[in-house]
Amino acid sequence: MSSQIERVVTELRGRILSGQLPAGHRVVELQFAQELAVSRTPLRLALGELEKEGLLERLPTRGFKVRAFTLDQIADAVDVRGTLEGMAARLAVERGVPFETLEQMRSCLVVGQSLVDEADRLSCGVNALQWSELNLRFHSLIVSAGANDALAATLQFVSRIPMAGANALTLQGQVPSVETSFIRRAQQDHVDLVQALEQKAGSRAEAIMREHAFRSRENKKLLIARLARTTA
Question: Fewest Cβ atoms closer than 10 Å to its Cβ: which of 12, 87, 121, 180?
Fold first, then answer.
């Protein structure tokens, strides 16, 4: 994703989650292209990304509108995702995690730790966009290792609910001081999960994922509340 598209996604996401763009609001391309000083092509790509996150809904005719959702709906969806991912982790142990999958997970741990270490070195927030992409990859590997098509399909459905997907752990840098502490803990959860998989501890792996989702749910509620206060 280019920096220009990323900037537009971040700005519009913030407006939606803070309530500046309410549910049902129609996104007029010309208006936002002018406001955000971008051409229509990057704007359309940014709108497509927000549709994937579940924050926008494509209109039958043309364009997008802001989807209606509540914090409770987000929390419920994240709870369900945690249950399903926990099941996937347990199934992965029972069925045997492929060596290649474990290697890819370990690679994610290395990259994740490097992002945290870089934030410490530069005394800044973790690169939230890179973390979100990494987090999505890590969680996708867990689901893949579970080798259950019905579970994977259900997770895809749940992840279309706003802010419920694994790529929506943070608000991508909009509340950096808060987000960084959450990312540190999430990184440790990932380390613990890989260790449980290596030790073939299925029940522990399942419990880690459920607790991981619980923290994600509470973090999202806190981040959105903080964002709403800062933009009020």
Answer: 121
